[in-house]
Write a structure and sequence with these properties.
It comes from Streptomyces poriferorum. This protein is an alpha/beta fold. It is built from 12 helices and 19 strands. The protein binds flavin-adenine dinucleotide.
């Protein structure tokens, strides 16, 4: 076993010559992880901590931007704590809960005090966040190569993945080999597609857009603010999603909106909807063009396990590449971190077994475990997304009755963010755990 030292406060380990630069020649490892976003860095970190030789390949260099809302719920914070990330260091902004705004009404809901999760959330720009996590994986022993783009899986005659082909700069393609490969390459899911794992077209795919504004007035807010009453400018219909204003603690806010397009809405013009919304906010908040930092940027959100199976022929899918964003709220960082840990555990166990049927059986446990954790919850969430969120957003659930009842609000907040203790410790746990348990998880398909 390798001794792990995860000192992320050290000067960027990625600038060390052997850590994140020069692609070098062909390399071998026990596990190759493709993509150093939250999913890939989590998988690489947990593998390295388990003493597995892991090669983490990333096409860009750090630090780099990633279009995101930068918001972390207590579930995601819990994963950071499990990884030993120093969240007390400067740069992390804590949140006490959520503030929901709908029409004239607004309510604040504190994060619940649970036994299994912290009672605070965090924000941190992905520019810093992904850099910290990648460094954390390197400090634990992962070999990171940046500026290395994976182009294809390499397979043996039986079609089993045995490595990947990469290119960097104008160099010739290089083959790297490993008995297990983890695809953490985000929503593009290039590796999964190359292995024939198509997106399930019955599942929703949301789009979201965000922009930073300089807003000292709102930058140190204690609550993550969510607006449920935004409307498309042309049709005046409610946005089938919500808008957010997340405090970054550095004089800026991250403002954005996400929507699940439904054919009755036509094309979702997020930019125009954002402009209309910003014009509604008080002048003192400063959410105006002259205070904007950079352009509005948007990206797709693959929701509710929209790609399966999550394991096939030596390849495990984690994070957005496996469509793991929650259909309840569009959150995907915590999910990527958690799935990275499960994939790492699975791979470490499988590698302790001889190559062949026993190892294969161990690898097939990954989709089973993911399904056990989120199968029923996501099935329920996909139904809610189909029947409610994609039609009218959060308006129907945040009606006057719910907004006026602390019990209903807390129940809804905990449902949306998947925050319950198991076994149940209070009435809300009991209601939510029972509701989810009553929904059969979909069968984990094999290929
Ligand atoms: C506008 C918007 C707002 C969002 N807001 C939030 C939020 O507030 N909270 C939240 O929890 N989630 C949010 N999400 C979702 C969240 O961003 C994703 O779920 C999360 O980033 C998934 O992590 P990942 O590691 O799976 O993928 P990614 O973060 O996309 O990382 C994939 C990595 O793989 C690399 N890569 C890709 N292809 C290759 C290749 N061929 N070779 C090598 N490397 C490759 C990429 O460069 C990247 O570094 C938001 C998403 C959007 C679009």
């Amino acid at each position: 076993m390798r001794e792990a030292h995860a000192d992320q406060s050290a000067p960027s380990a990625l600038s060390a010559p052997d850590a994140g630069s020069s692609p070098g020649p062909s390399e071998e490892a026990q596990v190759i992880v493709v993509g150093a976003g939250p999913a890939g860095s989590s998988a690489a970190f947990h593998l390295a901590r388990a003493g597995v030789d892991v090669l983490l390949l990333e096409k860009s260099g750090f630090p780099r931007e990633k279009v995101c809302g930068d918001g972390l719920t207590p579930r995601a914070v819990h994963q950071l704590i499990r990884m030993g990330v120093d969240i007390k260091a400067p740069g992390w902004t804590r949140s006490r809960g959520m503030r929901w705004v709908a029409g004239e009404r607004q309510v604040q809901i504190d994060w619940p005090a649970l036994g299994g999760y912290p009672d605070f959330g965090l924000t941190r720009s992905r520019h810093d966040f992904d850099d910290i996590l990648a460094r954390h994986a390197v400090a634990a022993g992962a070999r990171l190569r940046t500026g290395v783009k994976v182009t294809d899986p390499v397979t043996d005659r039986a079609g089993r993945v045995t490595g990947v082909t990469t290119v960097s700069g104008a160099g010739a393609p290089v083959v790297h080999r490993a008995p297990v490969v983890i695809a953490a390459d985000g929503a593009s899911a290039r590796l999964a597609l190359a292995m024939g794992l198509q997106r399930d077209t019955n599942r929703q795919i949301a789009t979201a857009a965000r922009r930073y504004y300089r807003s000292p007035e709102r930058s140190r807010e204690e609550y993550l603010e969510l607006w449920a009453d935004l409307r498309f400018p042309r049709s005046d219909r409610y946005l089938p999603g919500y808008g957010w204003i997340f405090p970054m603690g550095d004089g800026r806010v991250n403002v954005g909106l996400g929507a699940i397009p439904h054919r009755r809405h036509g094309k979702a013009d997020l930019r125009a909807t954002l402009d209309r919304w910003m014009a509604r906010t008080p002048e003192a908040w400063g959410l105006r063009e002259e205070n904007a930092e950079g352009p509005v940027r948007s990206a797709a959100l693959p929701l509710g396990f929209n790609r399966h199976p999550l394991y096939t022929k030596g390849l495990l899918l984690v994070g957005d590449s496996g469509g793991m964003i929650s259909p309840w709220n569009g959150e995907g960082i915590g999910q990527a971190l958690e799935a990275g840990e499960v994939a790492a555990e699975t791979a470490a166990l499988a590698l302790a077994l001889p190559a062949g049927p026993r190892r294969e059986r161990a690898l097939h446990h990954y989709p089973v475990e993911m399904n056990r954790r989120w199968g029923s919850y996501y099935r329920l969430g996909n139904t809610a997304a189909d029947l409610v969120f994609s039609r009218s957003g959060f308006q129907p659930v945040l009606n006057r009755y719910v907004m006026g009842s602390p019990f209903l609000l807390n129940t809804l907040a905990r449902l949306l963010t998947n925050l319950t203790d198991k076994p149940s410790r209070d009435v809300i746990d009991h209601v939510l755990n029972t509701a989810v348990r009553l929904v059969p998880a979909p069968h984990a398909r094999r290929r």
